[in-house]
């Protein structure tokens, strides 16, 4: 799949910024690719070990753990476990942000009417990963039954994890968020819907926050390093490439997990 139509027109190299002395890894949209997540976690751990530091690194997941890929349940389970062990056995301080796909999943749990729209952009794969068959068509009773089964099948610790997701994380000059920010608006005045859904204005205008925004949401075949934003969404579910950026030691550095796509016979 080609994401060129979403690609910003310029790609200037991001200048070094401070992360308040921390090493922070921002992980892009995973979308059910547990295989790539596990590989990337190994890459991140090896990268930090090679730095020779003794402090606690941070890993920030920027959202969109579910939908489109084959194992949303496995991804949620893995990140929920890492979050529960944050600062301890995981070896990282772990922050987990909400993406627009998690927001939509939670809305379906509360009201089945949004089910048909959710499955149009990947929700069917999430239902399947939790053992729920996607209803055919838009029959309200069928969707209500699917919602009730999903509520039964979703482990309580997964639900608690999803309901406790954060909208932002800040480390020094870096703001981590799922989609981006509304240009010209202070961080305290940002609309949560923009933080989860914005594209056009944010991608094509300086945001003016005086920070580097690390985000996902807008898939591209290559990560983007700009003066005021870094995009780590490389469309893992379609490209087989999951990306993280390391900030806080030298220039921002991209790390990736890759799985070769099968060649059609």
UniProtKB/TrEMBL annotation:
Residues 25-221 form the Calcineurin-like phosphoesterase domain. One of its GO terms (biological process) is RNA decapping. One of its GO terms (molecular function) is phosphatase activity. One of its GO terms (cellular component) is cytoplasm. SUPFAM superfamilies: Metallo-dependent phosphatases. InterPro entries: Ap4A_hydrolase, Calcineurin-like_PHP, Metallo-depent_PP-like. It comes from the Bacteria. This is Serine/threonine protein phosphatase. It comes from Caulobacter endophyticus. The lineage of its organism: Bacteria, Pseudomonadati, Pseudomonadota, Alphaproteobacteria, Caulobacterales.
